[in-house]
Amino acid sequence: MTYGGSVGRDTTAACVRRAFDQGVTLFDTANEYQGGKAEAVLGDAVRALPRDAVVLATKAYFPMGDRPTQRGLSRKHLFEQAGASLRRLRTDHIDLYQCHRYDTATPLAETCRAMDDLVRSGAVLYWGVSEWTADQIADAASLCRAHGWAEPVSNQPQYSALWRRVETDVLGTSAEHGLGTLAWSPLAMGVLTGKYRPGSAPPTDSRAAGSGASFIQRYFRPGVLEAVEAATKVAAETGVPLARLALAWCLRRAEVCSVLVGASQPRQVDENVAAADFDPPMEVIARFDEVLAPVALS
């Protein structure tokens, strides 16, 4: 989300290159991030990589202008934004095109048929959704199946050890209908890195001290930071940083295909990637759950 904004073009390219060299192949963005600039700098960075080895994912839904036709999941908006994303990403196809939210103002059949047409045209290879409810996912998958349209293949929900609302029904429904889960904010907007301490002001360079403060406040409920501090000790006893254990916790779910994590420096890429090869013992997962589950949003 910060590429094309606080993270410049050269650093973006360095992060993407480092990620790819360590086996990362999925790069996720959205048309609205930085007003399209995030797609543009990501497109430039990916051009240095073999295109057939990269999965480029982007999204559409949120307003890209002031007019009513410049938002949502109508055929018009999806087709126009797919074209704009292709130009910014400097590619001839989007590997995974995602509906960034559910659009109550557009018939579901119109959205699904538009996605099918984009797939059939070759502009999009697969399509998915983000932050849809279990019922919305089931309705879309069933509708597409009934009409022989391309079915959604993925859902991108917020999911972490501190945000477990999708465990109730979304993860199971996604799996039932063949959608893989791409978890965003698996580190709870940085809270699960341990950078925020009970009774202390947020670090000056942190999200909580800047423009993201309003979003991260949901995690600053009574008892959360104390629980995170206890989880940090669990990770330390295992010999890993808290963030690595938090990512591994998320990846342990059979429904989760991947976690989406940001990096503003190549060294952060290194730490994120390390979680993929970390397989914590079940007793460590149990202790991690024991301290965090009572304060998690579910």
User: Which class of secondary structure composition applies to the elements?
Assistant: alpha/beta
Q: Tell me the name of the CATH class of the largest domain.
A: Alpha Beta
Question: Radius of gyration over alpha carbons?
Answer: 19 Å
Order of helices and strands: HEHEHEHEHEHEHHHEHH
Q: Helix amount, in percent?
A: 40-55%
- Mean of residue pLDDT values: 95
Description of the molecule:
Helices cover 41% and strands 12% of the residues. With 298 residues, it is α/β, with parallel strands linked by helices. The chain folds into 2 domains: 1-156, TIM Barrel (Alpha-Beta Barrel); 185-298, NADP-dependent oxidoreductase domain (TIM Barrel), CATH 3.20.20.100. Helix 2 links the parallel strand 1 and strand 2 (55-60). It is globular.
Observed structural traits:
12% strand, alpha/beta, 41% helix, globular, 11 helices, 298 residues, TIM Barrel, 7-stranded parallel beta sheet, 2 domains
Summarize the structure in short.
The chain has 298 residues and is of the alpha/beta class.
What's the SSE blueprint?
Layout (H helix, E strand, L loop, with lengths): L8 H13 L4 E3 L8 H10 L8 E6 L14 H15 L4 E6 L8 H14 L2 E7 L3 H14 L6 E3 L13 H7 L3 E5 L28 H4 L7 H15 L3 H10 L4 E5 L5 H9 L7 H11 L6
Parallel strand pairs: 1-2, 2-3, 3-4, 4-5, 5-6, 6-7
Helix pairs in contact: 1-2, 1-10, 2-3, 3-4, 4-5, 5-6, 8-11
